[in-house]
UniProtKB/TrEMBL annotation:
<keyword id="KW-0964">Secreted</keyword>
<dbReference type="GO" id="GO:0005615">
    <property type="term" value="C:extracellular space"/>
</dbReference>
<comment type="similarity">
    <text>Belongs to the meteorin family.</text>
</comment>
<keyword id="KW-0372">Hormone</keyword>
<keyword id="KW-0732">Signal</keyword>
<dbReference type="InterPro" id="IPR008993">
    <property type="entry name" value="TIMP-like_OB-fold"/>
</dbReference>
<dbReference type="InterPro" id="IPR051998">
    <property type="entry name" value="Meteorin-like"/>
</dbReference>
<dbReference type="GO" id="GO:0097009">
    <property type="term" value="P:energy homeostasis"/>
</dbReference>
<keyword id="KW-1015">Disulfide bond</keyword>
<dbReference type="GO" id="GO:0005179">
    <property type="term" value="F:hormone activity"/>
</dbReference>
<protein>
    <recommendedName>
        <fullName>Meteorin-like protein</fullName>
    </recommendedName>
</protein>
Length: 283
């Protein structure tokens, strides 16, 4: 339609980058418009420039509709997102998810795919020329989402800092995006974002899907950063840990992290009983 431009970019058939732009900066001309976009990728981001009216976001992943009930949707608003409220909508009922002006850096909002879709409504503005509403989104299976101890939000109920059981650790080793043996070199606490950044020195890299852990030029050692919630109270300490976790919105998020000696014990016990869900060298 004249006055509206939508750009969709799919990367490796798995992510969207959408720029939704009202051309012209007058509020009156579009204040009653309701536009729709359809997203078929499992992750990506949306930017709505100069928001007026409303935007309905339809998530239609390239999976069987029968599997939709097993999906969780998570969104992470951009730090400077402004100009609209984001609602969860189902059969005409709206539940406020993100209020315009909410400055909660790094906060993630998750809900079941079957709980509804996203309805983004612009708030009245005298000057919309500087407003951009935007967020990243991810779709994942509910089983994977439940393993993300760091996911938080109004609609998400987790025990983010509880220790993992032996079974959870062994499964995490098989299914996590990264698995490393390493030590905590330092911890940086970010009070505003309610997060801690764990600076990890890597002794052995078992697996990583993204290049979070890299060789440093100065020492030639592997290093990287993992994020977790500030409330978990992570502190530097002696000894090695087995760090597992997932990539979430481009960041490494901590999952299970037992002391390495405890992992060796549980791995050996499971192996002796033939109960290991997968093979990984404990040494």
């Amino acid at each position: 339609r004249k006055g509206v431009q939508v750009y969709v970019l799919c990367l490796v058939c798995c992510s969207n980058l959408i720029a939704f732009d009202h051309v012209g900066l007058t509020h009156e001309s579009h204040k009653k418009d309701v536009e729709q976009v359809y997203l078929r990728c499992s992750e990506g981001s949306i930017e709505w420039m100069y928001p007026t009216g409303a935007l309905i976001v339809n998530l239609r992943p390239n999976t069987s509709p029968a599997s939709y009930k097993h999906l969780t949707v998570c969104i992470k608003p951009f730090k400077d997102s402004a100009g609209a409220n984001i609602y969860l909508e189902k059969t005409g009922e709206l539940k406020l998810l993100v209020r315009d002006g909410d400055r909660s850096p790094s906060k993630v909002y998750c809900f079941g795919y079957d709980q509804g879709g996203l309805f983004i409504e612009a708030t009245p503005q005298q000057d919309i020329s500087r407003k951009i509403t935007g967020f990243q989104y991810e779709l994942m299976s509910k089983g994977v989402a439940s393993d993300l101890h760091t996911v938080s939000g109004e609609l998400w109920d987790t025990a983010p800092c509880r220790p993992c059981s032996d079974t959870e650790v062994l499964l995490a080793v098989c299914t996590s995006d990264f698995v490393i043996r390493g030590s905590i070199q330092d911890v940086t606490n970010e009070a505003e974002e309610q997060e801690s950044i764990i600076h990890v020195g890597v002794n052995k890299l078992y697996r990583q899907k993204s290049k979070v852990f890299q060789l440093t030029g100065e020492s030639g050692n592997w290093r990287g950063q993992i994020k977790t919630l500030l409330e978990c109270g992570v502190k530097p300490g002696d000894g090695d840990f087995l760090f597992t976790g997932r990539m979430h919105f481009g960041e490494a998020r901590l999952g299970c992290a037992p002391r390495f000696k405890d992992f060796q014990r549980m791995y050996k016990e499971a192996k002796d009983k033939g109960l290991n869900p997968c093979e990984i060298g404990p040494d």
